């Protein structure tokens, strides 16, 4: 194997993997090969037609106009035998931000991970992740996160650590009928750039409610991109932002739908935000009818089937979720809305010491509002091979010190299998829940209160962009 001597984060980095395979970063001219691989292989069943919307998505991602990545951000493996450059595995790197309470974090998001069936189980994806992680870390991202297939990414240092994509299913037969005169009190219309200030203000207001551990700040650039591009619906990936209004009110809120529906489902995802002071039981029936009407106009992503349900992807704490579960039917009983268990984000934190230093203001704020306000002392956290010592002085996290590698956990205040710490760090699980699930989590009784104060279980709203 030969190495080019450059950092794996470098656009010019090339590595020979043997057998004619070469690992490198993409260029704009790779768009068609990448689109071919993704649309041929990303299928639910090998007999399905090619995934053309995904091919368009790949072309758009490589067009240098997408807010999350540029044309050089696919890591790929090509097979050069016979003089060709057939791409046989690839994955790309997106960037977005998360707010850890009020500390903003750049997050690197590996996406569109795929390998040709004839090249699997040869470590190609592992090699690609080496590149994605190197670039993401070189850019200063302290976190990488994936919305991916079950289990697989654990092998690359990821752990499930934030709620993602729980949904409610509402059969269309349950949608309350329209009024006899046909006059709907609330309507849906396509959002325009004039709606942007109201949309952004409402989104921000919701983010500030509920003491979220992690939430997604959304830039004006992202909203503008979606508002001006959603009609290029060949990809099915854009956000179709729609405003709710009535005869008296121009803006009652907004919701987001994709630009294509899926088989028999009409999805609403990411946002369903209503201005304060509106009775949701008054608003929802006409909006449900309007969503169904939109769904009937939408192209179908793959395998068309008659629409039989609406699907709402809303976080567990979302007020619309609670209202939908209690919306009365014509007999005054709750509609039979079915709720699915949420999935979760995979999260990787390559350097916990750096991460903890970065979020120190949040940890200090939590301490200040607790019975441990003004705390001075040390907290040693052992990760079975690695140990961190946190020094607190008068409620400030003065230092996070990396100790020599050690496996002797008994002297530490608390010990965690390394990845099992991440659900605690992101407020996804409480210390009690994790201790119950992992017998190798050891916490000294004297450290329990401090750990629970620093890392409380909290809801999050980590909307995936893209
Ligand atoms: C999932 C997928 C990307 C794996 O590709 P691959 O080329 O086999 O990956 P690698 O060879 O680099 O495998 C890395 C490790 O995962 C293991 N592995 C491979 N496929 C796996 C799977 N489906 N589940 C669990 N582990 C798997 C490998 O054995 C290897 O382990 P090792 O390094 O200890 O030997 C490939 O099966 C694929 O393209 N599937 C269809 C598209 C897809 O689902 N993509 C993911 C979307 S989030």
Automatic annotation (TrEMBL):
Transmembrane segments: none annotated. GO terms for molecular function: acyltransferase activity, transferring groups other than amino-acyl groups. Residues 21-179 form the N-acetyltransferase domain. Pfam families: Acetyltransf_9. It comes from the Bacteria. This is N-acetyltransferase domain-containing protein. It comes from Thermogemmatispora aurantia.
């Amino acid at each position: 194997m030969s190495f080019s001597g450059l950092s794996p984060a470098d656009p010019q980095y090339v590595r020979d993997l043997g057998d004619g395979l070469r690992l490198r970063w993409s260029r704009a001219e790779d768009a068609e090969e990448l689109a071919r691989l993704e649309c041929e292989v990303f299928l639910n069943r090998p007999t399905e037609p090619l995934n053309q919307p995904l091919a368009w998505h790949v072309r758009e991602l490589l067009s240098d106009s997408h807010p999350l990545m540029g044309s050089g951000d696919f890591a790929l493996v090509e097979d050069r035998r016979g003089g060709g450059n057939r791409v046989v595995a690839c994955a790309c790197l997106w960037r977005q931000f998360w707010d850890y309470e009020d500390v903003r974090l750049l997050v690197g998001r590996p996406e569109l991970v795929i390998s040709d069936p004839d090249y699997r189980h040869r470590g190609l994806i592992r090699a690609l992740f080496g590149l994605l992680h190197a670039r993401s870390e070189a850019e200063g991202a302290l976190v990488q996160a994936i919305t991916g297939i079950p289990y697989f990414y654990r092998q690359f240092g990821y752990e499930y650590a934030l709620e993602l994509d729980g949904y409610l299913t509402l059969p269309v037969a349950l949608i309350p009928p329209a009024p006899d005169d046909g006059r709907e009190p609330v309507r849906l219309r396509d959002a325009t750039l004039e709606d942007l200030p109201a949309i952004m203000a409402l989104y921000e207001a919701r983010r500030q409610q509920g003491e979220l551990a992690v939430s997604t700040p959304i830039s004006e650039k992202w909203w503008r991109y979606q508002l001006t591009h959603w009609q290029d619906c060949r990809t099915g990936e854009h956000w179709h932002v729609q405003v709710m209004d009535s005869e008296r009110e121009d803006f009652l809120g907004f919701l987001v739908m994709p630009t294509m529906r899926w088989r028999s489902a009409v999805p609403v995802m990411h946002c369903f935000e209503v201005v304060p002071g509106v009775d949701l039981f008054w608003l929802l029936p006409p909006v449900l009818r309007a969503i169904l009407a939109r769904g009937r106009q939408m192209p179908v992503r793959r395998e068309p089937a008659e629409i039989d349900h609406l699907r709402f992807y809303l976080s567990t704490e979302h007020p619309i979720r609670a209202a939908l579960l209690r919306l009365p039917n014509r007999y005054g009983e709750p509609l039979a809305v079915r709720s699915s268990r949420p999935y979760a984000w995979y999260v990787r934190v390559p350097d916990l010491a750096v991460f903890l230093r970065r979020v120190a203001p949040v940890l200090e704020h939590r301490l200040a509002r607790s019975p441990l306000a003004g705390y001075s002392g040390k907290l040693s956290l052992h990760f079975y091979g690695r140990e961190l010592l946190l020094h607190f002085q008068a409620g400030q996290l003065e230092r996070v010190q990396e100790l020599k590698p050690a496996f002797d956990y008994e002297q530490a205040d608390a010990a965690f299998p390394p990845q099992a710490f991440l659900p605690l760090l992101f407020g996804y699980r409480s210390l009690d829940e994790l201790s119950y699930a992992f017998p190798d989590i050891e916490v000294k009784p004297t450290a329990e209160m401090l750990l629970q104060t620093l890392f409380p279980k909290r809801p999050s709203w980590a909307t995936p962009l893209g």
